[in-house]
Amino acid sequence: MARRGSYAKGVARRQEILESALDVIGRRGYQNASLKQIAEVVGVTPAALLHYFGSKEELFTEVLRTRDEHDLMAPHPADPTDAKAAFVDVIRHNTEVPGIVELFSRLAVDAVDPEHPAHQYFLDRSERLRESIADAFDRDDRRQAVMDPATMARVIQAVSDGLQIQWMIDPAVDMPGIIAALLDVLYPPKSTD
């Protein structure tokens, strides 16, 4: 019985660490979020963080999963015409958490290595995101894609990821506006003629 309670405490502590790390990275940025700073916020040692996650890369991968649970993988909008607005809202939200965007972009590059702890996360996330995009826009009877849904979803994802890098270099880049314009081109309203 004690083991079960101990396990529950460990799960709760792990989640507390993830939430704190998400907050620290979101506020201070990826470059300024050391294991020591995250540990201080939670009230543990850096060694304790590694006990729960194994490495900084694994911790940061789990931080991105936690962010996805909060922001990106929300249920589809009830009204399919909200698909564009929902996606643009996610992009707009990203402008409010530059540290998380930087973490995502840096880990995405590192995760090209199949041995990196984030490799499978990015493969799985990309597949789910593309399926979600294709499905959401496919349900919109008022619009018609100019290409097959899988290709369209991949183009939207590629532009979105690329815009994040441009935005990190130049915060004047209007990510939500550019994505909205792209979606209008890739998924224009059906003609009523």
TrEMBL record:
A GO MF term:
DNA binding
What sequence ranges are listed for the domain HTH tetR-type?
11-71
> Mind telling me which InterPro entries this protein's record contains?
Homeodomain-like_sf (IPR009057), HTH_TetR (IPR001647), Tet_transcr_reg_TetR-rel_C_sf (IPR036271)
**Keywords carried by this UniProt record:** DNA-binding, Transcription, Transcription regulation
The residue ranges marked as DNA-binding region are 34-53
- Key word Transcription regulation present in the record? yes
Would I find Lipoprotein among this entry's keywords?
no
Q: Which protein, by its recorded name, is this?
A: DNA-binding transcriptional regulator, AcrR family
Q: Which organism is it from?
A: Microbacterium hydrocarbonoxydans
